[in-house]
Write a structure and sequence with these properties.
By secondary structure, the chain is mainly β. It has a domain at 7-105: OB fold (Dihydrolipoamide Acetyltransferase, E2P), CATH 2.40.50. It has one helix at 58-67, and strands spanning 7-21, 27-41, 44-57, 73-86, 92-105. A hairpin with a 2-residue loop joins strand 2 (27-41) and strand 3 (44-57).
């Protein structure tokens, strides 16, 4: 991406993807990923874990929810995005999420079988599957924060 806001993480899925559909019919999947970092300090191995919330849209959301489950080791590429909301008590909250462009299995310690999905578009052609490229934006007719009243995970 040209804007310099690109992130790639490799980690383990902490919860099964939660798939839902907005009123427009747009698919949205949310999942968590834990990334471990191991390093040597004072001749002892130290380990830290960072947790990330990942958001997937449209075909990518459908494919992720069918293919990925808790415990799987995956690679996620996307962009960081902050969203804000107000609780029912009037408290303001915000969080940073990864909006995924691509999600795939890590093949370092596992194998995977690729199964292409054919989706018929409006003109009868295939629209393809997956993330749709590097400059993906949520649909303009959808609010950027999909449910301000809902607290994140």
């Amino acid at each position: 991406m040209a804007n310099g806001n690109t992130i790639t993480i490799i980690g383990n899925v902490t919860r099964d993807p939660e798939l839902r559909y907005l009123t427009s019919g747009t698919a949205l999947a949310q999942l968590g990923v834990a990334v471990n970092r191991r390093y040597m300090q004072n001749n002892e191995w130290q380990e830290e874990t960072s947790f990330f919330d990942v958001v997937c849209w449209r075909d990518l959301a459908d494919n992720v929810s069918e293919s990925i489950s808790k415990g799987d080791r995956i690679i996620v590429t996307g962009r960081l995005e902050q969203r804000s909301w107000e609780t029912q008590d009037g408290d303001k909250r915000s969080k940073v999420e990864i909006v995924a462009d691509e999600v795939g299995p890590s093949l370092r310690w596992a194998t995977a079988r690729i199964e292409k999905i054919r989706r018929d578009g409006p003109a009868g052609g295939s629209t393809g599957g997956g993330g749709g490229g590097g400059n993906y934006e949520p649909p303009r007719d959808e609010p950027k924060s999909y449910d301000d009243a809902e607290e994140p995970f």
